[in-house]
Amino acid sequence: ETGVTQSPTHLIKTRGQQVTLRCSSQSGHNTVSWYQQALGQGPQFIFQYYREEENGRGNFPPRFSGLQFPNYSSELNVNALELDDSALYLCASSTDVAGGIGEQFFGPGTRLTVL
Amino acid sequence: AQSVTQLGSHVSVSEGALVLLRCNYSSSVPPYLFWYVQYPNQGLQLLLKYTSAATLVKGINGFEAEFKKSETSFHLTKPSAHMSDAAEYFCAVTGGGSNYKLTFGKGTLLTVNP
After folding, report:
1. Fewer CB within 10 Å, N- or C-terminus of chain A?
2. pLDDT tens digit sequence for A60-115
3. A90: chain B residues, CB-CB within 8 Å
């Protein structure tokens, strides 16, 4: 069983640029959640995709957007990058269980540096 | 809404000593609670979770946590620290529901001294 994978592992961009981060969910999972982890902080929820639809969003501006594909992989897009967007971006996949969505399994993350 | 407070951003113990990492939560609905561990340059690994069954939860690597509703706490313990336990530990809460959004604390860095 393949776990959650993310690409790229590291990325360096300059202010104002756009970036796309990718996540392949664990086999059999239909839900992907994205989190931003700034240095020295806990992860913060960005948004979640469930069966290709956005299913909840945290306190992030619209320049953070996402997609989920029919195979349940996902992309996180960030436009007009700012210095404060420098962080580790974590993807987590999960699937339905009775009464809600099950345990989230995290990928290794993408380290984004904005200069 | 949910929130988590982890008391102590850095905890240092000797190898073989008790590990106690503190977590207090706030939740407007019955919470689900989690402890995750993060090793350097890696993602998060689930240690254990509380989902309204037994209040004493046993996890991997000898860790356990006790849910205390009256104290709104979910402290993580391990009787005897090992060098390999050195890592960052995060407590997280969710109210469940359809999107299972996790709200994390700021983390506690555990250092284990030989």
Report:
1. N
2. 999 999 999 999 999 999 999 999 999 999 999 988 766 666 788 999 999 999 99
3. 43-44
- Answer whether A100 sits within 8 Å of B103, measured CB to CB: no
- Is A85 strand, coil or helix? helix
Confidence grade of residue B30 (pLDDT, cut at 50, 70, 90): confident
- Per DSSP bridges, beta strands A87-94 and A96-97 are unpaired
The pLDDT confidence band at residue A1, using thresholds 50, 70 and 90, is: low
Residue type, A3: G
> Closest residue of B to A34, CA-based?
B101
- Selection from A87, A84, A85, A89 nearest residue A109 by Cα: A89
In the block, residue with structure tokens 């113990």? B13
Token digits of residue A71: 């195979």
Mind giving me the DSSP string for B86-100?
Answer: -EEEEEEEE--TTT-
CB A74 within 8 A of CB A23: yes
- Give B 47-106 residues with CB within 8 A of chain A: 49, 90, 92, 96-106
- Degrees to nearest 5, angle at CA A16 with A13 and A22: 50
